[in-house]
């Protein structure tokens, strides 16, 4: 591991642990998720070394690992849980999760037409499989897949329309400004 990365990871250990445990509320699972984050960091070492902001990269990995945990467990509260975000150091910009809080995304989802909103919420947040939901709604599997995809596209367009995003060379969001959001 490159010498400049190791001290950053050591400094982030407590911050990552607090961030994960604030959402998971189970010590054993919290430690497992943290271990998974470090394993993913090792697997993605070349990208990590090239990252403009290692702290933001690691915090995003931790947030994604928590969402993956809840998806595997089928918890409906994965995306709507209240998160006590640990602020990033003053000299570093906040990561995507801090900028687009769960309540903001929830408000944006509420602006979608009902058929797209319901399909998106049921499959992405509640964790119901698309096949299962298609059967429940009495529509074809491909029809439901299209609804989910259109809902995601509409949500993405709504978020990008209301905020001014800056991206790094890898396509990661590095800053977000805007007050015109609903």
Number of strands: 2
Strand content: under 5%
Largest sheet: 2 strands, antiparallel
Strand sequence of the main sheet, in spatial order?
1-2
Report the order of strands and helices: HHHHHHHHHEE
Q: What is the third-level CATH name, the topology of the domain at 5-76?
A: Rna Polymerase Sigma Factor, Chain: A
N-to-C CA distance? 44 Å
CATH top level of the domain at 5-76?
Mainly Alpha
Q: Which term fits the overall shape?
A: globular
Whole-number average pLDDT? 75
Portion of residues within helices: 55-70%
What's the architecture of the domain at 5-76, going by CATH? Answer: Orthogonal Bundle
Structural class: mainly alpha
Low-confidence stretches: 75-101
From the alpha carbons, calculate the radius of gyration and give it in angstroms. 18 Å
Count of DSSP helices?
9
Give me a quick take on this structure.
This protein has 182 residues and is mainly alpha-helical. It is built from 9 helices and 2 strands, in the order αααααααααββ.
Structure description:
The chain is mainly α and 182 residues long. Among the domains are: 5-76, Orthogonal Bundle (Rna Polymerase Sigma Factor, Chain: A), CATH 1.10.1740; 107-152, Winged helix-like DNA-binding domain superfamily/Winged helix DNA-binding domain (Arc Repressor Mutant, subunit A), CATH 1.10.10. It has 9 helices and 2 strands. The chain has a two-stranded antiparallel ribbon with strand order 1-2. The chain starts with a helix and ends in a 5-residue tail after the last strand.
Blueprint of the fold:
Elements: H1 5-24, H2 27-43, H3 45-50, H4 54-73, H5 96-99, H6 102-110, H7 114-125, H8 130-137, H9 141-162, E1 164-167, E2 173-177
Antiparallel strand pairs: 1-2
Helix pairs in contact: 1-2, 1-4, 2-4, 7-9, 8-9
């Amino acid at each position: 591991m490159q010498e400049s990365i190791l001290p950053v990871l050591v400094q982030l250990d407590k911050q990552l642990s607090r961030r994960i445990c604030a959402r998971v509320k189970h010590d054993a699972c919290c430690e497992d998720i943290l271990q998974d984050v470090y394993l993913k960091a090792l697997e993605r070492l070349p990208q990590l070394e090239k990252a403009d902001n290692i702290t933001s990269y690691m915090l995003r990995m931790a947030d994604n690992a928590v969402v993956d945990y809840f998806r595997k467990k089928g918890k409906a509260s994965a995306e709507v849980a209240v998160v006590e975000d640990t602020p990033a150091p003053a000299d570093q910009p906040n990561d995507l999760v801090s900028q687009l809080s769960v309540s903001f995304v929830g408000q944006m989802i509420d602006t979608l037409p009902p058929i797209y909103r319901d399909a998106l919420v049921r499959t992405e947040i509640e964790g119901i499989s698309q096949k299962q939901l298609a059967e429940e709604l009495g529509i074809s599997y491909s029809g439901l897949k299209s609804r989910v995809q259109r809902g995601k596209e509409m949500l993405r367009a709504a978020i990008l329309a209301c905020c001014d995003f800056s991206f790094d060379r890898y396509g990661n969001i590095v800053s977000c400004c805007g007050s015109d959001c609903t």
